[in-house]
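User: I'll paste a sequence; please echo it back and then give the predicted structure.

Assistant: Echoing your sequence first, then the prediction.
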Amino acid sequence: MSAAPEVFPAQLDLWRERMEAALARRMPSAERLPQRLHAAMRYSVLGGGKRVRPILLLATARTLGLAEEQVEAAACALELVHVYSLVHDDLPAMDDDDLRRGRPTCHKAYDEATALLVGDALQSLAFELLARDPHLAASPAVQVRLVGLLAEAIGSVGMAGGQAIDLQSEGQQLDIGRIEQMHSLKTGALIRASVMMGAACAPQLDARLERALAGFAAPIGLAFQIQDDLLDVLGDTATLGKTAQSDHERGKSTYPAILGIAASQERVQRLSEQALESLAPFGTEADPLRAVADWLLARRN
């Protein structure tokens, strides 16, 4: 269990506020040419959200004794690629969703062509931050490592590959092994990168502690996606901020669909325990990550 759980909600609010301000500063002004594209980028990025991936990176930084200023740009890069993936996933050619974060999706608020360009531009901006943001306190070697971690996490052996498997599998009944493989790519890879990019910002980190962070990140990433599957079944559209029951309507194979709700909840609990056990070498220094894990798996949206 995480220490001082009553303190964490306030810290969570502070991290979210920090990320909103940091993202807003790094986004092109809506008044700058091309105005419509920049307005759509800001609409998509600054439209709320849990900021899970940046918060994981910030919690990792705190665990390692790093200042938030040292990793803020990397946290922004993570959120930009996450939002790019949402904008593209929502398009009619993919998941065809009309609602995201309680508002019309980007292609509904603007148009499909603009949404495509928004995703492209956000991905480009993410890597520009890792390469050139003046506030990223990192050596060139660390910057290269950050770029590599993020690129791998969102490519064909990461997020994009997982989405491809997801699309190809609609209407099919996958076994649990295949579902876990899909989840580990589509969602888990970027969750893992959130933690490991934090570790990369501490280049002198002992290899044993880096392995402990990897041991935490992998099961948390899978548990996060199973929890999403459960919320799609158990939640409602108003709470989720996106259309409930959408996985079922598309004939997607999910944990609850294959194993049922109780077994899926048990799997989340086991993965959470595995993740928290991995943090033992850090002692109480990893309490920020323990608190984030508790928050992620107790959420309702």
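The CA atoms of residues 77 and 126 lie 4 Å apart. The chain has a mean pLDDT of 91.
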